[in-house]
Amino acid sequence: MSISQDSIIHVSKLVKRYSELLAIDHLSLEVRAGEIFGFLGPNGSGKTTTINCILQLLSYDKGEISLFGEEMTPTRYDLKRRIGIVPQEVAVYDELTVRENIDAFCALYVSNGKERKALVNEAIDFVGLGEFVNFRPRKLSGGLKRRLNIACGIAHKPELIFLDEPTVAVDPQSRNAILEGIERLNAEGATVVYTSHYMEEVEQICSRVLIMDSGREVAQGTVDELKAMIGMGERIRVECASLDDALLGAVQALPSVRSAAIKEGALVVECTSGSHNLTDVLGVLSSTSTAYGRVWSEPPTLNDVFLEITGKALRDEA
Amino acid sequence: MWDNFKYTLLSIVRNPALLFWPLGFPIILSTLFSFMFANLDESFQLQPVALGVVQDETYESAFGLDDTLRSFDGSAADSEQHFFDLTYYAAEDEAETATAEGAIDGYVIVADGAPVLRISAAGLSNERRLNLTTVTMVLDGYVRVLNEIETVMEEDPTLLLDDSAQAMVAELVNQGSQPTDEDIEALVQYVTAQGTPDVIAGFQTDAVRTEKLKLTKTDPDSSARYYYALLGMAAGMGMHIAYEVVSAFMAQKSPLGARRTLAGMSRWRMLVSSLAASWLAAFSCLAIGMAYMHFVVDVDFGDRAVPCLFALGLSSLAFCALGSLIATFNLSGNLCVAITTVLAFFAGLYGQASQRIADLIAIVYPGLAALNPVRQTAQLFYSLLYYDSLDPYLHICAVLTVMAAAFATVAVLRMRRQRYAYL
Prior knowledge:
Chain A is α/β, with parallel strands linked by helices. Helices cover 34% and strands 29% of the residues of chain A.
């Protein structure tokens, strides 16, 4: 597999086994400079394992991994210095203050004290922890800890940032601030690999998405490409005064309708992609003289795509 | 590296749980030891006896007895020979009254030509019996010497004379003829001028008395071994600091470890700076512990402060390197405590039984004993306290240096290219 010039991460046919369990099954992916690359998958699908292999934390059985166009090995500290990590769990020193924590992590990448001081101040401003610089982590709320976790990962201004579910268990305001921050980092030139279970977040910020299941890539592309991939159109919901099986049959008979059902006094219709689905459904209601009230038409979400591709069966962490 | 060292040290200092074992533990235990050993030491220390003397005619006629007793009196003797505080009484009644009132522990009286010690009931108590034993030893010694003098006087009185007088007699004998009156007169004048007791003193000093010799630089202290082994154990507990610090950048130990493993600083730099920080913390704890033992508990470390501190530094370095090595394996930190506890047993910390076993191993398997860093630490202090030469000390230093280098090297090699199959 050839590596394109703007490739930041290049993974080719990666295989990782945990004894009998095949955790990653010949996975290939490419992340290009300037992207926010979304990594999606159910629990145990191999997302974190893939990232750990890319970062050479985990050994792997087969495959090639390049970062910034160069082969990645455990001792490529020159490449590691260009990477920022924001792990899923808050991983900071409990004994150090907010400022000390950020400085301690930044010092692992930047040795010049003066340069580092400016970077630390910038990171503090970036995550909005200015009022809490002398607090120790145990005195911070969950959202503030998350922001500290992010500051520790980005203070050295990395070119490539891995964010592993950074918004877990944070309030909507903090989540919004974090997402805006990620977009700002990207706008400043950083390439971001973003892992999350929150589909709306991925849909909001990611330029491309890879969906994994059982260690394999099941879909990859932009959000629109993924939506087009499953052939799902909008979901139409109509409040009707009276609903009967004849009406339901007439709606289901429409060529662009995938399914129709009566739920809580409303007609719910899932359509395939098409240009006049709403007109068709409303036409059936008019032709059967069915009185109707409010009408909703929702385009498919990434969540719909995800469930369509990975199925609706419950998953547990392997 | 400096920043990693600084922040590692800061996180150690702010973690009281980490500092308890190397700092709190020796202070608490040495305080307990001091209470335990205080009574033990006192029971072996001689206290001056308040001794009465019935100074009647028979006492005055006892040849050399008063001189003998006065030589151990507080006013005349040096501190090591201060066994008695003498009080003189004109008659036995007065001495008896003073004994009954507790003013003196007993009194000496000369009866039937020999000195006799009479003591109060209180003098028979355990606390005072040892002290009064010194009186009986002195009196027995006096009687023995007197008997020997009497025997010699019967067999060869000239042996009682000092070297000069003996030389004069020998010259008279060697003349091979009857000595002249002038020669005999000169001898009599010499003996008279010197005084008979002094001439006889020459006999006592040269021929009878046993002299005390010191084989070690400092007097042996039965409790010092416990304190030294305790310092060795505290140094071992310092291993836990290094374990925790190094674990903080081992990916399989914590999310923080994983994050630091992925950082842009090489593992060996992280290890060296973390090891240095943990060593400084452990060493400081030990130095404080040793200072507490010396200045508060009054443990004798001799007069070699700098080598003592160097010993602590080297010992804590060896243990910190071992703690780092253990941290590179996926093993519990409790192992550090377990190892130290076992090694302390074989260093003799847990009483006389463990000391006997430790000594036995040192005799039968000296190589095995040398591998015990807790014992080696205790031996460092022993060698400084008791030996004039620094050779034994330097030998142990060399062993600990090799240990530290070996542990640290293996730890670096294990970490350098470490990747994990599982996290």
